[in-house]
């Protein structure tokens, strides 16, 4: 794959071999009402990368993702999609290129899994073309990839939290966009299904060169599956780059106020975060 | 062959949709129930006709007396009832779809009360004994009802909808506007002389007694013009049923499509109320019933419309004939049927929140 230049190269914007930037935040300021929650943020999302955004609760991860998905207007600065300001693009065109799974989506009562996933095709449909052969193919693939095919005829309220989460991921996949923004996609999932979802993201990226930005709370998994980490704190980027550079003991202290050891996985060399419990902390020198 | 369980395709050229037997069969059954109500309604009265005679007369056969009774005396009543019920069912389905709330309806949001204030103002200030005069005469009761409904919905829109349609805020604002308008209505009734107050009360109960072809025409035109608009806009419905972020992520222009749908619903409810007075609960209950029968994720438009029509005409037939000498206005009957349903909805939504 031509896209997967080593992450260290990708961060160097001047390198001629660096992939094109799909999404770019320029001096982005975002807020709700009076309060600004993201300040003057600059961030590039290169083509074909998997970027994990990490940071404590309330630091502005979801807010940033919403701005990337054109769900909120910047207070200052701008977001560029392939070089064009996001707010000048038509809503449907954005929806056909950027798919977003919100942190806590709400579906109407009584909807079946198959119908939910099929709604992901909305940006590609029109009032007379509501279920084309291509729609069907993409939806089937999304159902199978997320292991929800067997649940297709059940309604969402009959599912466990994790099954429901996988159905939502299937819907985001059915949107079939080149860019995918996933806000805590592993929420509610057991470890095996977390790995399954992250493997799926990895596969999407490897097989079809999709660009993925996802918010994750499990730092070790983020380091393992993303080729870039963006650590946020209070609406600003504290560090960004390859996982091994970002995930350091100092950064964990600075961003999360967490005392932890960072070990390295023997096989992959990926950083592993081992938090210290309170008695370890008091016992530590 | 279906590759996705439960979503069998039908495709003709570039047109494609999901084949759902229920979405065809249930509306057909509703249409049959509506036709049965019209036949039953046209047979009952001082000059009783058997169903066969009614059907023959409807299709232009039979003796001329029967044709006169059916076409000139009784059919207009059923047709106005059907048009009003259809408009209310459709308006309710649209409002509940965009508000994502089973309680959203013209009754609850103050739209009907606005129409009431408009109509009663004309009755009370327009001149004694039904002889409406002066500038109000030009507007007339129906025009005033439509204007009142539009003003009331504008108030709700400015106070609540602009900041997002979902959640309970819209409903609370609607209930507030409703309460304010109801007190205006009471004041109007106190101010009115006794004859006008009586006429106003009859109008406020929702009745088809005054129905004739002249009343049917505007209601019919409104439906003919607004139904295609609603069906075209309804493409966004499937996506609008989600929360704001998900819907916009699917490429729905939230404000534009919602405002267009909202205006359609308000116009439908306003013309319906102008034709027959407020007929309670049809717009509230029919879409939810249709939703449960069809098992779609959002209130189905066509089925809600047909169910609204059938329910209204049946309620009118029952009100006229089931209580011996007492003729109950259709609005009282639908209110009696709908009130327990509203309580049920409130109890249920209370449970869901705790
Ligand atoms: N709709 C809203 N209205 C007002 N303030 C909001 C809204 N959504 C989020 N905020 C505030 O903005 C800040 C950032 O929120 P955001 O949802 O982006 O955090 P987050 O990093 O995604 O947190 P979490 O890990 O808990 O999901 C928080 O302080 C939050 O209280
Ligand atoms: Mg969040």
Q: What topology emerges from the helices and strands here?
A:
The complex is a heterodimer of chains A (285) and B (354).
Chain A: H1 7-10, E1 21-32, E2 35-46, E3 50-54, H2 61-68, E4 76-81, E5 84-85, H3 91-97, E6 98-101, H4 113-119, H5 133-145, H6 161-174, E7 179-183, H7 191-208, E8 211-215, H8 219-225, E9 228-233, E10 236-241, H9 243-246, H10 249-256, E11 260-264, E12 271-275, H11 278-283
Parallel strand pairs in A: 3-8, 3-9, 6-7, 7-8
Antiparallel strand pairs in A: 1-2, 1-4, 4-5, 9-10, 11-12
Chain B: E1 8-12, E2 15-19, H1 21-43, H2 51-58, H3 64-99, H4 111-125, H5 135-159, H6 168-191, H7 194-205, H8 213-233, H9 237-240, H10 244-249, H11 254-276, H12 282-294, H13 301-321, H14 330-353
Antiparallel strand pairs in B: 1-2
The structure holds adenosine-5'-triphosphate and magnesium ion (MG).
Adenosine-5'-triphosphate is lined by residues 32, 37, 55, 57-63, 103 of chain A.
Q: Main interface pair?
A: A-B, 49 and 35 residues
Strand content of chain B: under 5%
CATH superfamily of chain B: ABC transporter involved in vitamin B12 uptake, BtuC
Give the spatial strand order of the biggest sheet of chain A: 6-7-8-3-9-10
Helicity of chain A, in percent? 25-40%
Estimate the mean pLDDT confidence of chain A: 89
Q: How does the helix and strand content of chain A classify structurally?
A: alpha/beta
Task: State which percent range the strand residues of chain A make up.
Answer: 25-35%
Structural class, from helix and strand content of chain B? mainly alpha
Structure explained in plain terms:
- The complex is a heterodimer of chains A (285) and B (354).
- Chain A has helices spanning 7-10, 61-68, 91-97, 113-119, 133-145, 161-174, 191-208, 219-225, 243-246, 249-256, 278-283; strands at residues 21-32, 35-46, 50-54, 76-81, 84-85, 98-101, 179-183, 211-215, 228-233, 236-241, 260-264, 271-275.
- With 285 residues, chain A is of the alpha/beta class.
- Chain A has a single domain (20-283), classed as P-loop containing nucleotide triphosphate hydrolases (Rossmann fold, 3-Layer(aba) Sandwich), CATH 3.40.50.300.
- In chain A, helix 5 (133-145) runs antiparallel to helix 6 (161-174).
- Chain A is globular.
- The N and C termini of chain A lie far apart (48 Å).
- Mean pLDDT of chain A is 89; it is low at 1-14.
- Chain B has one domain (83-353): Orthogonal Bundle (ABC transporter involved in vitamin B12 uptake, BtuC).
- Chain B is 72% helix and 3% strand.
- Chain B contains 14 helices and 2 strands.
- Chain B has helices at residues 21-43, 51-58, 64-99, 111-125, 135-159, 168-191, 194-205, 213-233, 237-240, 244-249, 254-276, 282-294, 301-321, 330-353, and strands at residues 8-12, 15-19.
- Chain B has a two-stranded antiparallel ribbon.
- Classes of the chains: A alpha/beta (285), B mainly alpha (354).
- At the A-B interface, helix 3, strand 6, helix 4 and helix 5 of A face strand 1, strand 2 and helix 10 of B.
- The complex binds adenosine-5'-triphosphate and magnesium ion (MG).
- Magnesium ion (MG) binds next to helix 2 of chain A.
- Residues 61-62, 103, 183 of chain A line the site of magnesium ion.
């Amino acid at each position: 794959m031509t896209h997967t230049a080593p992450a260290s190269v990708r961060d160097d914007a001047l390198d001629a071999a660096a992939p094109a930037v799909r999404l770019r935040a320029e001096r982005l300021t975002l807020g709700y009402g009076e309060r600004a929650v993201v300040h003057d943020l600059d961030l590039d999302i290169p083509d074909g990368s998997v970027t994990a955004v990490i940071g404590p609760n309330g630091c502005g991860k979801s807010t940033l993702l919403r701005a990337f998905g054109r769900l909120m207007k910047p207070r200052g600065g701008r977001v560029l999609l392939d070089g064009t300001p996001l707010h000048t693009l038509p809503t449907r065109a954005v929806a056909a290129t950027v798919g977003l799974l919100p942190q806590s989506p709400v579906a109407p009562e009584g909807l079946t899994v198959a119908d939910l996933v099929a709604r992901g095709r909305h940006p590609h449909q029109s009032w007379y073309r509501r279920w084309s052969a291509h729609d069907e193919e993409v939806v089937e693939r999304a159902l199978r990839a997320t292991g929800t095919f067997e649940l297709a005829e059940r309604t969402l309220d009959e599912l466990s939290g994790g099954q429901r989460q996988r159905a939502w991921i299937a819907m985001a996949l059915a949107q079939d966009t080149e860019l995918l923004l996933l806000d805590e996609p592993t929420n509610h999932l057991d470890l095996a299904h977390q790995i399954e979802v992250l493997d799926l993201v990895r596969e999407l990226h490897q097989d079809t060169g999709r660009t993925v930005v996802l918010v994750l709370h499990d730092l070790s998994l983020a380091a393992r599956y993303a080729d870039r980490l963006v650590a946020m704190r209070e609406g600003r980027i504290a560090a960004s780059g390859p996982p091994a550079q970002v995930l350091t003991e100092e950064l964990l202290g600075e961003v999360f106020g967490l005392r932890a050891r960072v070990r390295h996985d023997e096989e992959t060399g990926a950083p592993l975060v081992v938090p210290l419990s309170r008695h370890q902390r008091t016992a530590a020198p | 062959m279906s590759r996705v369980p439960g979503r069998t395709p039908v495709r003709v050229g570039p047109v494609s949709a999901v084949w759902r037997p229920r979405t065809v069969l249930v509306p057909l059954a509703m249409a049959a129930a509506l036709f049965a109500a019209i036949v039953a309604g046209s047979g009952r009265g001082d000059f009783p006709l058997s169903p066969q005679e009614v059907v023959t007369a409807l299709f232009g056969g039979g003796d001329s007396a029967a044709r006169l009774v059916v076409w000139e005396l009784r059919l207009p009543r059923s047709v106005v009832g059907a048009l009003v019920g259809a408009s209310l069912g459709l308006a309710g389905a649209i409002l509940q779809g965009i508000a994502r709330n089973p309680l959203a309806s013209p009754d609850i949001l103050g739209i009907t009360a606005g129409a009431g204030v408009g109509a009663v103002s004309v009755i009370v200030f327009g001149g004694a004994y039904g002889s409406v005069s002066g500038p109000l005469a030009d507007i007339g009761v129906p025009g005033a009802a439509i204007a009142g409904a539009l003003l009331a919905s504008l108030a709700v829109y400015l106070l609540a909808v602009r900041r997002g349609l979902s959640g309970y805020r819209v409903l609370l604002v609607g209930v507030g506007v409703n309460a304010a308008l109801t007190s205006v209505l009471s004041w109007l009734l106190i101010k009115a002389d006794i004859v006008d107050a009586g006429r106003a009360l009859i109008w406020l109960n929702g009745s088809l007694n005054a129905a004739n072809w002249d009343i049917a025409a505007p209601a019919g035109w409104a439906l003919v013009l607004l139904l295609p608009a609603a069906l075209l806009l309804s493409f966004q419905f499937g996506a609008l049923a989600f929360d704001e972020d998900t819907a916009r992520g699917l490429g729905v222009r939230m404000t534009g499509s919602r405002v267009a749908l909202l205006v359609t619903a308000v116009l439908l409810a306003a013309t319906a109320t102008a034709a027959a007075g407020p007929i309670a609960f049809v717009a509230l209950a029919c879409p939810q019933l249709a939703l449960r029968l069809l098992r779609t994720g959002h209130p189905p438009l066509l089925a809600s419309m047909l169910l609204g029509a059938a329910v209204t005409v049946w309620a009118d037939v029952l009100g006229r004939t089931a209580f011996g000498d007492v003729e109950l206005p259709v609005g009282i009957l639908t209110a009696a049927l709908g009130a327990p349903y509203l309580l049920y909805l409130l109890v249920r939504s209370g449970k869901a929140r705790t």
